[in-house]
Design brief:
CATH topology of the largest domain: Creatine Amidinohydrolase
Strand order of the largest sheet: 4-3-2-1-5-6
CATH superfamily of the largest domain: Creatinase/methionine aminopeptidase superfamily
Number of strands: 19
Distance between the termini: 44 Å
Number of domains: 2
Shape: elongated
Structural class: alpha+beta
Order of helices and strands: HEHEEHEHEHEHHHEEEEEEHHEEEEEEE
CATH class of the largest domain: Alpha Beta
Strand content: 15-25%
Largest sheet: 6 strands, mixed
CATH architecture of the largest domain: Alpha-Beta Complex
Bound molecules: zinc ion
Helix content: 25-40%
């Protein structure tokens, strides 16, 4: 699907709801609809989409050179020196149409400014639903991001040693992501060793990994505006028999859950496969989060792969499968792969081994 088709998809979504156009300000959605380079957190551009499918991307002088030549689905409108994009938007919008806006993305201040000038109402997930199903071009870009992720962990592995701090481990992973082609990181790298492994979002600190510590490493590349996301639990020294058993249980839960993924199966069902295996090993109470999530321009997108999602997965969904166990005061273990949902099955984009790695 090219960007023009995506604009057309948005237009039919807003038409169905009786809205006359949309004001898009989120960098993720602007990238999705126009191909303009994605810069996380960079607000300031405004994409206006009218009901006839006309699209204007309003940019400042500062961004003009960067977007020119990258956008094929919208006319690029450059603001005059000192003119605010919103002021230019006022000149473009004719009459008093009802315009959709991204209620979850715009700040309260921007919403106030937009509502003062236009009749606006929430888009209510029109774009999120479109972005849930990736087209083959998007899947190819995500596959490349995961390829970079796999190469980075392979390369980093040669340099990891017992006694290194979490920060040193994170630095090694991030350096190799860049060296393998990541434009930036999909999210803040997680390195959580030993008892700190129970923090599912543990930021790396000064703790040194040794003596059989399980170390949860969760990191991702951003490439072509899209994210990858992988977790491995590496052992710095030989783990105890108990921790080894827990690792094997998480690995089996992860693999069986991946095998259960196909179009038409609900997120809840896939989650239940992993949860059932961990419950059978008396580890169910330590699995304290949902099984996975969609990945795309954002690292957390729809669909949810967890007990709350009774809707069927669809071909083109790109999801993570990431069971974990977190035993307070002791250790954490998580294994996460990136998977494309297909009509009759799935394709795993993550190639790095899930076998136990002892450093
Ligand atoms: Zn992750
Ligand atoms: Zn994840």
């Amino acid at each position: 699907m090219d960007h023009k088709q995506r604009i057309a998809g948005l237009v039919s979504g807003i038409e169905e709801r009786g809205i006359d156009g949309a004001i898009i300000t989120g960098p993720e959605n602007i990238h999705y609809l126009t191909g303009a380079p994605f810069v996380r957190g960079s607000y300031g551009k405004i994409l206006f989409v009218g009901i006839g499918g006309t699209a204007s991307l309003i940019v400042s002088d500062l961004d003009y050179q960067e977007v020119i030549g990258t956008v094929d689905s919208a006319e690029i409108v450059k603001t005059d020196f000192m003119e605010k994009p919103l002021d230019r938007l006022k000149k473009i919008v004719k009459g008093t149409p009802r315009l959709g806006f991204e209620e979850d993305l715009v700040s309260a201040a921007l919403k106030e400014r937009i509502s003062a000038e236009f009749r606006v109402e929430p888009l209510r997930g029109i774009l999120e639903r479109m972005r849930e199903r990736k087209d083959p071009e998007e899947i190819a870009v995500i596959e490349m991001a995961q390829f970079i992720n796999d190469r980075a962990i392979e390369k980093a592995l040669g340099n990891l040693k017992a006694g290194m701090s979490e920060l040193e481990i994170a630095a090694e992973l991030e350096y190799n992501l860049r060296m393998k082609g990541a434009e930036t990181f999909a999210f803040e790298t997680i390195v959580a060793s030993g008892p700190r492994g129970v923090y599912p979002h543990g930021m790396p600190g000064t703790r040194r990994a040794s003596s059989g510590d399980a170390v949860v490493i969760d990191f991702g590349a951003r490439y072509g505006g899209y994210c990858s996301d992988m977790t491995r639990t590496l052992f710095f020294g030989d783990p105890s028999a108990e921790v080894k058993r827990a690792y094997e249980a998480v690995k089996e839960a992860q693999e069986r859950a991946v095998e259960s993924v196909k179009g038409g199966v609900t997120g809840r069902k896939v989650d239940a496969v992993a949860r059932g295996i961990l419950e059978g090993r008396d580890l169910g109470k330590f699995f304290v989060h949902g099984l996975g999530h969609g990945v795309g321009i954002e690292v957390h997108e729809f669909p949810v792969v967890g007990p709350s999602n009774g809707s069927p997965l669809a071909p083109g969904n790109v999801i993570t499968i990431e069971p974990g166990v977190y035993v307070p005061g002791r250790y954490g273990i998580r294994i996460e792969d990136l998977v494309v949902v297909e009509k009759d099955g799935r394709r795993t984009l993550t190639k790095f081994t899930r076998e136990m790695v002892v450093i």
